[in-house]
């Protein structure tokens, strides 16, 4: 079944409900959204696009995002949304890699993309007359698609090489949507605020809100202005939103996030990168324990591996509270999660191994990457590349990415545990630890540190702090103080770049 048929059926139940808003201004009802999607689908067909063809989306946050997404599905096409924060050359690579027939772009991205994409993939500015003309061909019916047909290509961030397009089918997107609705219970009386890029987790969550005819309130990409949040809250009432840890940290530290803004926030879903315990404690102190909801997933199984809802947190006085804060929670509904050893067997309780996941949420594979697909999906299990351990109650704690683990003198060192300790030092605002090749030890840890306000802490003070919590062999051999850590377009720390810097690269 075409996923858009599910959304269209939901829209018919409450056609006059607001579907899309811009900051504090309602734009389209569900009737209007579906009509615009249907006319766009007819325009795409008039361009000669056939079911299964790919459509690239290079868009900053804009109301038209869901119109294009739904219109492409109505025409039986496969959208490939791109993060607007990527370099135009990176966006062009993905569009070319998947053989996109057309690229829809916002005005800020259209000009630099025009010379990079071949004539077979025209770039259409969504504010142009050419885009408006696509709505002049009547309305298209919903194309029939099998549940196993590709529905969306999600390109991985490419922090360790060329990005790969994860093939999400109509079944996997539907399963993702249903899993969220089963687990959250949060979409019956609130709206979703999109301050994160719609091409990422926030846009995926929005599909569940569309399935319940809730309002998708869109802010400009990267808008962390508390005034905009207050305006949206004032206009629509209870709002929930998704944020990566970097953004959540900034909101936590913002003095402009006053009581009025916080009172209008129902849920803050967060994920997409490690969330350190100290950062989570600060966020809980600021926003309250009932608002924070951890979602762990990957582009290969978006938002749908495990979750840590507020009801499972408990209070600081409860046994195991710190352990739960450090975890990514329990498996999502409809998803099986296990931790496996290198020999493929199940890891024992508390033993570190690779996290593997199975369920209808999984991608079908990588676009035109059969070798990568075979390496990632084995016997129906997606091997995530994340290292973790599971306790007796089924809580999963991530230790690190497998590629980030440091082996020093034959001992495994997990950078995250060093980072967690460093962040408890008053002089450390952010940090990241990587391994540097060493002739004697194989690898040694190097810590990159962003100092808090004031002069940077002395390395010997950081050493003493580390040694008060961890074994000596885990102590960083070098501390590098930097003004900021390099991050990907989705806010993930680029450890490949840090390894290059640690090795003396420019």
Question: What is the gist of this entry?
Answer:
The chain has 506 residues and is an alpha/beta fold. Helix content is 31%, strand content 27%.
Identify the notable features of this structure and list them briefly.
GMP Synthetase, Chain A, domain 3, globular, Rossmann fold, 31% helix, nine-stranded mixed β-sheet
Whole-angstrom Rg: 23 Å
- For the record, the CATH architecture of the largest domain stands as 3-Layer(aba) Sandwich
Distance between the termini: 51 Å
Broad CATH class of the largest domain: Alpha Beta
Roughly what is the average pLDDT, rounded to an integer?
Answer: 92
Strand order of the largest sheet: 2-1-10-9-11-12-13-14-15
Task: Give the helix level as a range of percent.
Answer: 25-40%
Write up what this structure looks like:
This protein has 506 residues and is α/β, with parallel strands linked by helices. Strands 2-1-10-9-11-12-13-14-15 form a nine-stranded mixed sheet, with helices on both faces. Strands 16, 17, 19, 20 and 21 form a five-stranded antiparallel sheet that branches. It has a four-stranded parallel sheet with strand order 4-3-5-6, with helices on both faces. It has two domains: 3-390, Rossmann fold (3-Layer(aba) Sandwich); 405-502, 2-Layer Sandwich (GMP Synthetase, Chain A, domain 3). 31% of the residues lie in helices and 27% in strands. It has 17 helices and 26 strands.
């Amino acid at each position: 079944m075409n996923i858009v048929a599910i959304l269209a059926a939901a829209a018919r139940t409450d056609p006059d409900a607001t579907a899309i808003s811009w900051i504090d201004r309602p734009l389209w009802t569900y009737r209007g959204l579906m009509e615009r999607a249907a006319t766009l689908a007819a325009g795409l067909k008039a361009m000669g696009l056939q079911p299964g063809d790919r459509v690239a989306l290079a868009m900053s946050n804009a109301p038209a995002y869901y119109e294009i997404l739904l219109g492409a599905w109505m025409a039986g096409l496969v959208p490939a949304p791109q993060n607007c924060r990527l370099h135009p050359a990176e966006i062009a690579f993905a569009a070319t890699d998947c053989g996109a027939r057309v690229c829809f772009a916002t005005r800020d991205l259209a000009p630099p993309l025009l010379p990079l994409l071949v004539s077979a993939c025209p770039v259409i500015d969504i504010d142009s007359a050419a885009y408006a003309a696509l709505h002049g061909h009547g309305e298209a019916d919903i194309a029939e698609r099998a549940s196993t047909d590709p529905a969306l290509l999600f390109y991985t961030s490419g922090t360790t090489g060329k990005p790969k397009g994860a093939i999400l089918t109509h079944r996997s997107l539907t399963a993702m949507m249903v899993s969220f609705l089963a687990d959250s219970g949060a979409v019956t009386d609130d709206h979703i605020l999109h301050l994160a890029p719609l091409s990422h987790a926030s846009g995926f969550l929005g599909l569940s809100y569309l399935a319940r005819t809730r309002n998708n309130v869109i802010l400009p990409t990267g808008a962390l202005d508390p005034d905009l949040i207050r305006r949206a809250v004032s206009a629509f009432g209870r709002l929930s939103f998704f944020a990566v840890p970097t953004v959540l940290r900034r909101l936590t530290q913002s003095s402009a996030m006053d009581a009025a803004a916080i009172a209008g926030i129902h849920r803050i879903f967060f994920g997409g990168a490690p969330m350190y315990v100290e950062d989570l404690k600060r966020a809980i102190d600021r926003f309250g324990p009932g608002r924070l909801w951890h979602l762990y997933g990957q582009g290969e199984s978006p938002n749908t591996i495990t979750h840590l809802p507020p009801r499972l947190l408990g209070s600081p006085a409860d046994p195991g509270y710190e352990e739960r804060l450090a975890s990514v929670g329990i498996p999502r509904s409809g998803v099986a999660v296990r931790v496996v050893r290198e020999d493929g067997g199940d890891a024992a309780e508390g033993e570190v191994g690779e996290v593997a996941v199975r369920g209808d949420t999984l991608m079908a594979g990588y676009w035109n990457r059969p070798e990568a697909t075979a390496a990632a999906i084995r016997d129906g299990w997606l091997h995530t590349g994340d290292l973790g351990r599971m306790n007796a109650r089924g809580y999963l704690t991530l230790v690190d990415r497998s590629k980030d683990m440091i082996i020093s003198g034959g001992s495994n060192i997990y950078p995250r545990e060093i980072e967690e300790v460093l962040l408890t030092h008053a002089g450390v605002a952010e940090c990241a630890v990587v391994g540097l090749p060493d002739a004697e030890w194989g690898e040694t840890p190097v810590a990159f540190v962003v100092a808090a306000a004031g002069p940077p802490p002395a390395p010997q003070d950081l050493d003493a702090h580390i040694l008060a919590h961890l074994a000596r062999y885990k102590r960083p051999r070098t501390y590098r103080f930097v003004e900021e850590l390099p991050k990907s377009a989705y806010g993930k720390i680029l450890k490949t770049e840090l390894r290059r810097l640690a090795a003396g690269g420019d």
